[in-house]
Amino acid sequence: MATDREPDDWWDRAACAGLPTSRFYPDPEDKRRIRAAKRICAQCPVRAECLNEALALGDIEFGIRAGLPPRERRKLHRQTNPQHEAEETAA
Question: In terms of Cα–Cα distance, which of 64, 41, 44 is closest to 54?
Answer without folding.
Answer: 64
